[in-house]
Amino acid sequence: LVSIGNICRSPIAEAVFRKLVTDAKLEHKWMTDSAAVSDWNVGRSPDSRALSCLRNHGIETAHKARQITKEDFRTFDYILCMDESNLRDLNRKSNQVKDCKAKIELLGTYDPQKQLIIEDPYYGNEKDFETVYEQCLRCCKAFLEKSH
User: Fold this and answer.
1) Which of 43, 24, 27 has the alpha carbon at shortest distance from 35?
2) What is the pLDDT of residue 12?
3) Average pLDDT over residues 65-69
4) Which residue range or ranges hold the Phosphotyrosine protein phosphatase I domain (predicted)?
5) 106-138-59 Cα angle (round to 5)
6) Active-site positions?
7) Average of per-residue pLDDT across 10-14
8) DSSP-assigned states of every residue in 9-76
């Protein structure tokens, strides 16, 4: 799960998906991670508002931001991202990777409410983080149902 900085949207999506997988007892089938297309926040914890939003839904995460690697394109079956800018960057990076096996898609393509883009809440407020959480929950549920 990829966003620009890996401190807001993608760690929320990662934590939500991991919880869904755990609740469904499918941990043995999924390796879940999140990353950034940029190197701006490498090593940082998620935004405090993202952590607070997740805690409000009973989810904890110990994620530290990292940048996507060439190996990710060879290792993961899916790389799901948040917006068109992420999608462009990922497609460009994947073209430089020999043996890329990852299917690169917008996470929002799985949203039953058809909200294709998951907007960056960084400059918003708690309500915007809650919106991201709800979108990620809908999309991750639909993705999980479709893919196994």
Assistant:
1) 43
2) 98
3) 98
4) 2-146
5) 105
6) 9, 120
7) 98
8) HHHHHHHHHHHHHHHTT-GGG-----EESSSTTTTPPPPHHHHHHHHHTT--------B--HHHHHH-
Give yes or no for residue 90 having a pLDDT over 70. Answer: yes
The CATH number for 131's domain is 3.40.50.2300
Q: How many domains does the chain have?
A: 1
Rounded Cα gap, residues 129 and 120, in angstroms: 9
Residue labelled with tokens 């997988």: 21
Strand pairing of 35-36 and 2-3? parallel
17 Cβ neighbours under 8 A, 6+ residues apart: 1, 30, 32, 136, 140, 143, 144
pTM score = 0.96
Q: What are phi and psi of 2, to 5 degrees?
A: -130, 140
- Gap between the Cα atoms of 139 and 113, Å rounded: 9
pLDDT of residue 148: 55
**Which whole number is the average pLDDT over 46-66?**
97
- pLDDT attached to residue 110: 98
Cβ distance 61 to 70 under 8 Å?
no
Q: Which of 118, 119, 73, 67 is nearest to 92 (CA)?
A: 73
Mean pLDDT of 80-88: 98
* Structural domain for 9, as ranges: 1-145
